[in-house]
Amino acid sequence: MSKDKEGKDIVTVGALKFGFDSRVAIDTLRSLYLRPHYVSTVADFENETPKEQEEFHSLFVRGSATDYQSKSIFHPNDNSISYTTLSRFPPVKLLPPANRKRVLVTGGAGFVGSHLVDRLMLLGHEVTVLDNFFTGSKTTVSHWVGHPNFEMIRHDVIEPFMIECDQIYHLACPASPPHYQFNAVKTIKTSFMGTLNMLGLAKRTKARFLITSTSEVYGDPEVHPQPEDYWGHVNPIGPRACYDEGKRVAETLTYGFHRQDGVDVRVARIFNTFGPRMNPYDGRVVSNFIIQALKGEDITVYGDGKQTRSFQYVHDLVDGLIYLMNSDETRPVNIGNGDEFTIQQFAELVRDLVVKVQQEDGVENPRRSDIKYEPMPPDDPQMRRPDTTRAKEVLGWQPRWTVKMGIEEMVRYYKAKMAEGSM
Ligand SMILES: O=c1ccn([C@@H]2O[C@H](COP(=O)(O)OP(=O)(O)O[C@H]3OC[C@@H](O)[C@H](O)[C@H]3O)[C@@H](O)[C@H]2O)c(=O)[nH]1
Question: Annotated catalytic residue: which of 38, 169, 243, 313?
Answer without folding.
Answer: 243
